[in-house]
Specification:
Elements (H helix, E strand, L loop, with lengths): L2 E2 L6 E4 L3 H12 L4 E5 L12 E2 L1 H11 L2 H9 L1 E3 L1 E6 L4 E5 L10 E3 L2 H14 L5 E2 L1 E8 L4 E7 L4 E6 L1 E4 L6 H5 L4 E5 L4 E9 L7 E6 L2 E7 L5 E8 L13 H12 L4 E11 L2 E5 L3 E2 L2 E3 L5 E2 L7 H20 L9 H26 L6 H13 L2 H12 L1 H12 L2
Parallel strand pairs: 1-12, 2-3, 2-13, 3-9, 6-16, 13-22
Antiparallel strand pairs: 4-8, 5-8, 6-7, 10-11, 11-12, 14-20, 15-18, 15-19, 16-17, 17-18, 20-23, 21-22
The structure holds flavin-adenine dinucleotide.
């Protein structure tokens, strides 16, 4: 028989990734009692999402003051430009200076570090992540939700909460409990990433990408000079197929045979092969149980949007739940979450999917022309660079959210 929790929270958050931690901060800031559970015993040491965009930093400032952003910026690498190198030698340099924010750059910081800063801030506000606790099921009532938790010793606990939010990632158990679907596609092809040291003839400041007829690759600088995340995206059916468990030699072969650039790779700390899915839940939740972040939508990592839109979801939903619990808004305000956030997830999914499909389409007689002439032409158009930089930064949606937070 499950033990009944002695501390009924107003909101129970399942999952302490960036989405769950941000949501807990929004609620704690509003004075709402919250519990956040996490099945892992410790934070992952894998870097995963690297790009923190201006919109997310502005949201953190509005919620927490600027101390968290400052600490994140000090720990990460500030990249002001993206250099695109094309087969044939043409280049384009896209400056992020036109992002209309004091954060007119992309902050490169390992996701594990972003999570550490958020978790530490949450602890300062009196909420500790409860680790080794797993969501095991829920039952909905008109006034509350009862959730079953299980610790890693098998002991169960029954928690009553006014609201439950599944921030439990792409394999979400909360989504499953609601009977929601998560339909979409897996993109063909396997991709590779590695965190490693490289030696090359260029500077170590910005993000650098290379586009060739065999596929594309990108290099994202970490704070430590010479340390980079390298990502390889081969075209479907290209002679260079990525290994599912790649080694450093596979990356070096790509550099030597496809990029044909004087780049030496060494000292990898993380190498993995991965596949990319695009999926969206048929609903972001209902009544007293909601989904946010990867639990609700996943898509191609092009543009580094995944973690950032989860952070935006959390702020939007957290503000609404806090308003309902403080009796400043009716329950119907929660319907606005799906209405506002779902189109964003769908749009990001479509655009990033289009870019990925274009980059990975099998090589054709036209590919050479496109990568040597068409793409460099468009990539050098300043107005197009500005539009893309603004879209990726997500400053517009963040400012709308901040205006609402200020009206509190
Ligand atoms: C290899 C890789 C590279 C990536 N690179 C990028 C990138 O460059 N840019 C980008 O924007 N995105 C990237 N992503 C995606 C990014 O990591 C996700 O979008 C982001 O982590 C979503 O955050 P989240 O908090 O919604 O979910 P998650 O980070 O998945 O967090 C969910 C949490 O819930 C916990 N959990 C799950 N089930 C339960 C349960 N039953 N009970 C309790 N806890 C549970 C999990 O342990 C986890 O800690 C990458 C992902 C991977 C795997």
């Amino acid at each position: 028989m499950a033990e009944l929790s002695a501390r009924p929270p107003k909101v129970l958050i399942v999952g302490a990734g960036p989405t769950g931690l941000t949501l807990a901060l929004v609620l704690a800031r509003a004075g709402i009692s919250v519990r956040i559970i996490e099945k892992q015993s410790a934070r992952s040491d894998k870097s995963r999402a690297l790009g923190v965009h201006a919109g997310s930093l502005e949201l953190f400032d509005a919620l927490l003051g600027d101390s968290v952003s400052k600490a994140m910026i000090a720990a990460g690498h500030v990249a002001h430009e993206i250099t695109l190198g094309f087969e044939g030698g043409k280049t384009a340099v896209a400056s992020l200076d036109r992002v209309p924010s004091r954060y007119n750059f992309v902050l490169i910081l390992a996701q594990s570090e972003t999570e550490r800063f958020l978790e530490e801030e949450l602890l300062r506000r009196g909420v500790a992540v409860e680790r080794r606790k797993e969501f095991a099921g829920l039952e909905e009532f008109s006034e509350a939700v009862r959730v079953e938790l299980r610790d890693d010793g098998g002991k169960t606990e029954s928690v009553r909460a006014d609201f439950v939010v599944g921030c439990d990632g792409s394999h979400s158990g909360v989504r499953e409990s609601l009977g929601l679907t998560f339909t979409g596609v897996q993109y063909p092809g396997a991709f590779m990433l590695a965190d490693l040291t490289l030696e090359w003839p260029w500077n170590y400041e910005g993000v650098r990408t290379f586009v060739t007829r065999k596929g594309a690759s990108a290099f994202f600088p970490f704070k430590e000079k010479g340390r980079y995340r390298m990502v390889v995206v081969p075209r479907e059916g290209s002679a260079f197929t990525t290994a599912s468990e790649p080694t450093l030699a596979d990356f070096q072969r790509w550099v030597d045979e496809v990029l044909r650039q004087p780049i030496k790779l060494r000292d990898p700390t993380w190498i993995t092969g991965f596949r990319i899915h695009r999926r969206i839940a048929n609903s972001c939740g209902r009544h007293r149980v909601f989904l946010a972040g990867d639990a609700a939508h996943i898509h191609s990592p092009v543009g580094g949007q995944g973690m950032n839109i989860g952070i935006h979801d959390a702020v939007n939903l957290g503000r609404r739940i806090a308003d309902v619990l403080r009796e400043r808004a009716p329950m119907t305000t929660l319907e606005g979450y799906e209405r506002e956030r779902r189109p964003v997830a769908e749009w990001v999914s479509r655009i990033t999917g289009f870019v990925l499909r274009t980059a990975t389409r099998p090589e054709s007689p036209l590919t050479g022309l496109v990568v040597r002439f068409v793409l460099p032409f468009f990539a050098n158009l300043r107005f197009l660079q500005g539009i893309l930089a603004r879209a990726i930064s997500e400053v517009g949606p963040a400012r709308r959210e901040i205006a609402r937070l200020r009206r509190e």
